[in-house]
Fold each of these.
Amino acid sequence: MDRDTTTCFVCGKAILLEIAKTNECGRAVHEECYVLRMKLEKATTAGHMFPDTAVAAPRSIDRPRRTG
Ligand SMILES: [Zn+2]
């Protein structure tokens, strides 16, 4: 076998050039790795953008009840 391979930028494993995708930096990546990477970045960005929402949301359930 003399197929051309390169290294996946995300997972560091070998990847065939004929199935390699290219990320925004022009690096070869597995399609799966590219998708995972996108999801990860999206999740990370959302977490940093709305820290207050994530913390404040559960509080409404746990409000002390006033009696009397
Ligand atoms: Zn990969």
Amino acid sequence: MSLSLDIKFFLLFLLIIQVTPLNTRTFLDDVGCEIVQYPPEILGPVPHLKECLSTINSLVVYPGDPNYYESIKTFNCRYSYFPVVIIYVTNILDIQLSIYCANTLKIPVTARSGGHSFEEYGNGGRNGVMVIDVKEFNQVSIDKETNTAIIGAGNRLIHIYRKLNQAGFLFPAGTCLLVGIGGYATGGGYGFVARKYGMSSDNVISAEMVTANGSFLSSINSTHHSDLFFALRGAGNAGYGIITSFTFKIYPIPPIVTAINISYVSEQVDLLFMSIAKVAKNLSDKLTPDIRILSENDRLYIGSFYGVFLGSAEEAKSAVNELIELTEPAFTKFVELSWEEAVEKSPRFERQPFKSTSYVIAPPGLSREGLKFLRNFINNIECTTKALFYLMGGAINKFSVNSSAFMHRDSLYMLQMAMHLEGHNKEVQDKCFEKHLQFSQEFRAKYAIYFSYQNYIDRNLQNWETRYYGHHFPRLVETKRKYDPNNLFNWAQSIPIKFS
Ligand SMILES: Cc1cc2nc3c(=O)[nH]c(=O)nc-3n(C[C@H](O)[C@H](O)[C@H](O)COP(=O)(O)OP(=O)(O)OC[C@H]3O[C@@H](n4cnc5c(N)ncnc54)[C@H](O)[C@@H]3O)c2cc1C
């Protein structure tokens, strides 16, 4: 009997599947991110979990379920990590029950909001954890009398901006609209209006959270659980519990804003940075710009100064007049628009494999030598890399270093070196990655100060504890021990319960 061609192919396919070890089988998802099939070892606790979680109402996804791979897609797809269960919690009781099961079965727990962690900590950053996804906690309740809003911890920034906008308000948050507020505002949160109103965490008035013993703390603020309130604003995404909502200060939207784009050709980039060092101190806090340096390959404009000015084009021009006179840029554009348009115009980034590192640069800024070193790296690395300098100052410095766990005040820039790995094979990716780490070590030692920004989390960073949290680290460990003594919420860079 002869088999049809289709059946032969099918049998061949089955044979290939059988001889390929489970944990090395890979496939590409819709944006070309490689996914390795979950390793069978993670399945051990599944039957016990199914029994323990049988009474909860929320959606529970296990390895092997049809929507499992969809449920573990995070923004950075450099690695794949495989949770043992993902629970899309819809109410506090289900969070408490999930935590009870995790404690009973000794399974580590991680919270997930927007899935934009640089190191995929939203999936635990390793295999076999319980992910409590809070995306259903997406309320935005606005109080126009007190200029405050209660914001569910599972909201993406775009949803919050839109809701607030409808009521005539804004809040200090980032330019990447799909980031989750749960992981963003808890690690500082730099964004559109940081120099006007401070970091996002500076604008949190209170929070609600479920702790490791299942207690629901409904008012964490400057008078109740003030130790936790301190920790959550800067280290709240580092393993204290499952935050369910925040109360934020919100601000009236200005009638008009102006998008500024000032660009420079390669020869002008040094002058741009030397000039910013001069003008930054007196720059209006209505402007929170980032300054970018790109690779010289195939581009005309290598340096750019971007920002949204809270006011008219005329005011915006006058705010950057000194910089323009000093630098004579190759290109300038000032576009008046509504706040809503400015927000909506922000680029949406696709899920992708990448590696970022971060640095804090003190006034007066990078030396010429430092700039040369950085540009040399960007121009010669095979994987597209850009340097993003976020200008600090203004309201960020009005909050004291000891007001919260976010301690990077009085610096000139936070710098992100963002390396895109997509489109390269594994060998090239690994080479780029290694070169990035070498660059990082030397650049950090020679040209940056000691600290680093915790929202741009980097698992290769040595001494991350004090680089992210400085002298607050012992206090954060003490608070962690108080609220999570058995270290239920733990991963590579969560706050530990003791000093190692
Ligand atoms: C494309 C892109 C653009 C970005 N732009 C900016 C920017 O402009 N400014 C800036 O400051 N940062 C920016 N970031 C960094 C971003 O703020 C952090 O990666 C942040 O942690 C992502 O939060 P998330 O909720 O989306 O991620 P997730 O992966 O869901 O979570 C990140 C971390 O926060 C914890 N967490 C999440 N929700 C909760 C919760 N409810 N309770 C307790 N812990 C929680 C998770 O356990 C995890 O450790 C950007 C990141 C990306 C990928």
